[in-house]
Amino acid sequence: MNAQHPPGRETATPEPDDRTETAPAPARPRRRAVLKGLAATGIVLVAPAAGFVGWLYLDSGRSNTGSLSFRNRLKIPPLLDPTTDSDGRKRFRLDLREGSTEFLPGLPTATWGANGTYLGPTLRARRGDRVAVDVTNHLPERTSVHWHGMHLPAEMDGGPHNPIDRNATWQPYWTIAQPAATLWYHPHLHQTTAQHVYRGVAGLFIVDDPATDALPLPKQYGVDDVPLVIQDKKIKDDGTLDTSKMNFGGLTITGLLGDKILVNGTYDPHFEVKTELVRFRLLNGSNARIFHVGFADDREFQLVAADSGLLGAPQPLNRLLLSPGERAEIVVRFAPGDDVVMKSFPPPLKANFAYARLAGGDDEHDLVKFVAAGTLRPSPALPATLAPQPPAPQPTGDPFRLTMGDFTFNGRTMEMQRLDRVVGTGTVERWEIVNSQLIPHNFHVHGSSFHVVDVDGEAPPAHLRGVKDTVYVAPNSTVNLAVSFLPYSDARYPYMFHCHLLAHEDSGMMGQFVTVSPADRSLVQGDRLPLAHDHGD
Questions:
Q1: Is 314 in contact with 304 (CB distance < 8 Å)?
Q2: CB of 496 within 8 A of CB of 509?
Q3: Looking at the predicted structure, is the pLDDT value of residue 164 above 50?
Q4: Is 341 a residue whose pLDDT tops 80?
């Protein structure tokens, strides 16, 4: 692959379809109306105390603690075997379709999935592999598939500028050019991301490399190297997904929060432990819920990897905060006969009483029970060091400040043709992310990875010291990032940055930038993107 100019897309011909396009963009919420009821502390807190507090607790509290029987074996997403095409690429095939999934006993739920009825298979490739993916859209409306955390050219990124029409196939291809990491894929069409992810289109993409292979980490997929895709849902009595608060229906500040927890699409799950150490690849695949992961017995676990790869050394923790889109790898020690529940404890959102409650800050959930065999297969000791960690790259130039507002960055909502930033290929910039609101947000950037320099001027906590692409930004806080950009130059196709609370993103809390080489910088004309194709919005 040319390091300066990404190749064009492979050709793909839509299958015949006599239906008309039926994917109108959802109406944006009226931001001022929402925020007058949500983001003005006075308005919320001066309501009649007894009535408001009672309603707040009745409407907002969601907990399943003690209500599960853990009767269902945890499903493990299957590994998708690629073929080798005539160009020598590893070629994966994803077929997006509608289906029906029984989450609750006897209640079929209409869902979407990739190569199945809900979620999708795990793709796996190695650093240096040349890969291609045929993504065929048999859903009832256009969508897209974004490779979250992947380092690849913007034209292959799968954002809102890469729509896939109904009955069409999109064929991105690239070279895996990053260290081992747990990544994922999900739809990213402008204004419909929340709906499409919630219905079930998502899956993991695991990257391996020789350095990680050489470490004595658990690595038998589905046995001692176990993916955990954690999501919350609201399911009606008839089994249908309740999306009534998907885009701020009622008084909600983050989007839909569900009271049913799915792990790998399994409700009420258990997992049978067979080894002394188990490595869990955690993904918060929810639309809005922030999880605070730990164990019911408060046992210690070791954080070994963040979003974009291994840490320098294992970090002992007993709680781990994961906002939507974040991943982490942890290693847990079990004893023979252990019977313990992984939980989400009330997350420390650092919001005031009302907003913390409305954003799930008081919610507690049982996630999955782990039942250890009477005899466990011995595991190698966890290494004291994992991967060399060079100092965080030093940004150049003035900081780029992004202030989070009412579904805005710097007072502006997303526009498909507007360019918000031009950066140089291979450069490092300091991005200052300011949550000036009283409600929680997080921040994800495509086409790069970053180091957290500080949080409100303080050194980042242990779980934020690795290389990341998504980070929680608490109310009234500032997170400074050293953002390292990719070497792919393209003045036409942008990368995105956005809040990964998906209702916020769909409501306009997103922007876009291009990375260009010095030779291509003259192709950028002002703040408009020179795109002529159909964006699908």
A1: yes
A2: no
A3: yes
A4: yes
